[in-house]
Amino acid sequence: MKKALIASAALAALCPLGAAAAERTLTISVYAFAQDDFKTLVYDPFEAKCGCKLVVETGNSVERLAKMEANKANPVVDLAAVSMADALAASRAGLIDKVDTAKLADFAKLYDVAKDPNGDGMSVGYTFYATSIAYRSDKMKIDSWTDLLKPEYVGHVAFPNVTTNQGPPALYMLGLALGKDTPDLKGPIEALGEKKDEIVTFYEKSSQLVQLMQQEEIWAAPIGRFSWAGFTKLDVPVAWATPKEGQTGGMNVLVLTKGSKNQDLALQFMDFWLSTDIQTKLAEKLIDSPANSEVKLSEAAANNLTYGEETAKSLKLIPSAVALDNRAGWLKTWNEKVGQ
After folding, report:
1. Distance (Å, rounded) from C-alpha 135 to C-alpha 142?
2. 271 CB contacts (<8 Å, ≥6 apart)?
3. Percentage of the chain exceeding pLDDT 70
4. pLDDT score recorded for residue 166
């Protein structure tokens, strides 16, 4: 009997945290993108490490933020992955808490642009992407964003609709190039409006662009780097532009729900996601561009992602407050000048 008690005590001493955590559940809210890979690379390993249960909710940003708002008094989500602008919207609505970065062992490894994307301490970036111009290098040369509107090129251009993720960033860079850099984006929208009958299409899904370029219906289009891989498989020469005005892009961030009873566990999961090991695995699968500066990638992965300190520093991102405060105005001007 005494030996049995000693054995039980020894076992308890070996795994007190695991036993306690086994009763805990962490609920996360994420994009539906690549969830099979996330389960294999992130979710299952974290569950094995923490001895807890991970519940994953997916959906678009509007639906997921609405659910957080509806459950504000009694949160059902502990951590969410959202865009920079959505993180600021959640902060303004009192839905999220400050991130205690002192509890993130991997925080110091992040590129500076990802450490506090909105400057309010309420989010941490886990991936970002560049937006530039994919173009037929045998047909044209891109030195500036304004080259898209040149008479000899404009009839072979696809431009993102203002309602897409790529629309406002591309307009922002076009405005910079035109010397019309105002938050209302009126300058670049008006410039597009003047050429609207010549532009091939104002696209809503980047997936349609690869076929259009293969068929030589278009020679150029602003795209996010996450769409680049499809272009590299074409049997025509396609290049990624590095315009003199620079590249723009976007960033996704992690936030902690205000009032969550599992914030310590959520911080552990956040740190796990930001770790060099996990960020490397996600990047090599071409799922996310790494925000962790210590990630070293194969040449194949690096060429298909937004990668490296120089690139991270060069991105000209639209400030979240500008995006939130001007979205309605952008759409109104677009409808007036370009059409629906």
Report:
1. 8
2. 103, 104, 105, 106, 107
3. 93
4. 93
Q: Which residues pair with 123 in a beta bridge?
A: none
- Torsion (CA) 311, 312, 314, 319 in degrees, nearest 10: 150
Cα 93 to chain centroid distance, Å, stands at 21
What is the DSSP-derived secondary structure letter of residue 305?
Answer: S
Q: Are residues 108 and 171 in the same domain?
A: no
Contacts of 159 (CB under 8 A, 6+ apart): 148, 170, 192, 199, 201, 202, 203, 221, 222
Q: What is the pLDDT of residue 14?
A: 41
36 and 110 assigned to the same domain:
yes
pLDDT digits (tens, 9 = 90+) for 268-325: 999 999 999 999 999 999 999 999 999 999 999 998 899 999 999 889 999 999 999 9
Domain with 84 in it? 23-126+249-308
The pLDDT of residue 340 is: 63
* 66: its two tokens: 């609405």
Bridge partners of residue 257, in order along the sequence = 96
* Interior/surface letters 222-234, b for 16+ CB within 10 angstroms, e for the rest: bbbbbbbebbeee
What are the tokens at 190?
A: 């008006």
Are 161 and 203 in contact by the 8 Å Cβ rule? The answer is: yes
Q: Which amino acid is at 46?
A: F
In a shared domain, residues 37 and 121: yes
Beta carbons within 8 Å of 198's beta carbon, 6+ residues apart: 154, 155
Q: What are the structure tokens assigned to 282, written together?
A: 């996600």
Comparing CA positions, the residue from 122, 112, 60 lying closest to residue 92 is 122
Between these two residues, 303 and 335, which has the higher pLDDT value? 335
Alpha carbon distance 340, 335 (integer Å): 5
Instruction: Output the CA–CA distances (angstroms, integers) from residue 19 to 7, 11, 33, 212, in the order listed.
Output: 16, 10, 32, 56
pLDDT exceeds cutoff 80 at 4: no
Which residue is associated with the tokens 């996990």? 278
* φ and ψ of 265, to 5 deg: -70, -35
The average pLDDT across 230-252 equals: 93
Question: Does one domain contain both 229 and 265?
Answer: no
Instruction: Estimate the crossing angle of helix 167-178 against helix 186-194, to 10 degrees.
Output: 90
